[in-house]
Amino acid sequence: MSIPFPYTGAKSTVVVIDSGWSPAWSTGRLVYEHDYVGNDSDARSADTNTHGAMVTSSILDGAPDVGIIALKVLPDGGGATDSTVVEKALQWVVANADAYDIAAVNLSVAAGNTDKPLALEFSDELAALAAKRVLTVVAGGNAGQGDASQGVSLFAADPNSITVSATTGDGAFPAWAQRSPTQTDISADGTDIAMTDLAGQTFLGNGSSFATPAVTSAIVLAQEAARDLRGSALTQEEFLELARSTGTPVGDTGYMELDTDALLAKLVATYDTPAVAAPADTDPVPAPTPVPAPVVVADGDGAPNGCKAKFAKSGLGLGQLKTLDPDALIERLADGPLPKALAKVQERMEDGELPALLEALSRTGSKHWGEGVDTAAWTDAVTDVVHDMAAGTQAPNDGGFLDAWMS
Questions:
Q1: How many CB atoms lie within 10 A of CB 298?
Q2: Comparing C-alpha atoms, which of 65, 74, 158 is closest to residue 103?
Q3: Residue 291's closest CA among 220, 367, 374, 401?
Q4: Beta pairing class for 162-167 and 186-189
Q5: How far apart are CA 332 and CA 312, in angstroms?
Q6: What is the number of other CB atoms lying within 10 angstroms of the CB of residue 250?
Q7: Calpha distance 116→108 (Å, rounded)
Q8: What is the overall mean pLDDT for the chain?
Q9: Backbone conformation region of residue 155, classed left if phi is above 0, alpha if psi is from -120 to 50, else beta
């Protein structure tokens, strides 16, 4: 997965309810931890390659700058947990969701099988989190029997959580994957998922435990984008609509597999004008009317114009460009977690690709704002911005630049 500019998860945190963390694995930006098994503030596991550490690593692969909250509910050395321990962890999440800017909860823990929605011991907490637009993602389970039976883990049976079933990543389900046409919300690759520890050793993970983090990290990025573009987070229903409408069919089964890049591209293309977020205790803000996606200019052979690809390589998404005003764009490029984006822009300039970048920018301007755009002035203004960005200075926001941008 490539991370669309400028979303990396830096503005939020994710809760990993699992077996804790390990110093042998990256915890990214660890902001809080608690052990609900030992009832203390140290969620570190004695197991070097503990399950929770590998799940956390998978989440960070998709959202590298998200803050991590590690809540330990599984004992060292393996073993099971029960719903009362999970409930205690979720109660903490409900109480602290706002203070820690929690975007999602990852629960890669499974037990049993059901083909019907269930009221769980922690259903009240899941409902409270859904109302706050904190989305809880739960592993569908690995006790499948091919097509002989249909169902998901008991922990994944509450309607206020997102149930993830594991696929092979190439249009099929492994025989062990639990899934249900009425219970599975979205699927994701859970076969031979590569994870690398801090020593550089790579492990391959199999199971819905390792499919679930892909959805969790997609939620983190999508919520960051939604707050930025429309002023409010997505509801569970809104996220799932995006995930299903942009996903890849799993053969002819009727299930859809997550495509994070396509999901974020649709989100960016849909919300063009920022809106004011609804208060937490009111109904969700109705989604703005979707706008058409930018037109892709084709070369003579019908293929998308190469400028678009080179523009994307610079780390700047076309959709992002058209949704930000000049001040916002300059601020995002000058501040925050964007050194990689700046480096990529500068690299493209050194590689002689700046003309292609500018051509793509001018095409985007004319396609979005109409033929009334003075593309020459617009391109000159963007040239100044790109040069100033690469030099590490803030570009002047003069009238000509604003006129060219907003005409």
A1: 10
A2: 65
A3: 367
A4: parallel
A5: 17
A6: 21
A7: 20
A8: 76
A9: alpha
pLDDT for position 5? 57
Judge contact between 404 and 373, C-beta under 8 A. Answer: yes
User: What is the token pair recorded at 251?
Assistant: 């053969």
The pLDDT score that the predictor gives to residue 386 is: 54
Domain borders along the chain are 13-270, 306-406
Tokens of 229: 């573009």
Q: Average pLDDT of 210-223?
A: 97
Give the total residue count for the chain.
Answer: 407
Region of 265 (left: φ > 0; alpha: ψ -120 to 50; beta: rest) is: alpha
Cβ atoms of 262 and 246 closer than 8 Å: yes
Are 60 and 66 a contacting pair, CB within 8 Å?
yes
Q: Look at residue 249 and give its three-state secondary structure.
A: strand
pTM: 0.68
Tell whether omega for the bond before 294 is within 30 degrees of 0, i.e. cis: no
User: What is the CATH T-level fold of the domain 13-270, as seen in this structure?
Assistant: Rossmann fold (3.40.50)
User: With contact defined as beta carbons under 8 Å apart, do 165 and 208 qualify?
Assistant: yes
The predicted pLDDT at position 381 comes to: 54
Report percent pLDDT > 90 for the chain: 59
Q: pLDDT tens digit string along 381-406? A: 555 555 554 454 433 333 332 222 22
Burial, 377: exposed, middle or buried (Cβ in 10 Å; 0-12, 13-18, 19+)? Answer: middle
Lowest-confidence region among 38-47, 102-111, 242-251, 364-373: 364-373
Which of 188 and 360 is assigned the larger pLDDT?
188
What's the burial of 69, exposed, middle or buried (CB within 10 Å: 0-12/13-18/19+)?
Answer: buried
What is the 8-class DSSP label of residue 175? Answer: T
Instruction: Decide if 359 contacts 368 (C-beta within 8 A).
Output: no
101 CB-contact burial (10 Å; exposed 0-12 / middle 13-18 / buried 19+): middle
pLDDT at 273: 53
3-state helix, strand, coil in the chain (%, to 5): 40, 15, 45
CB 20, CB 70: distance < 8 Å: yes
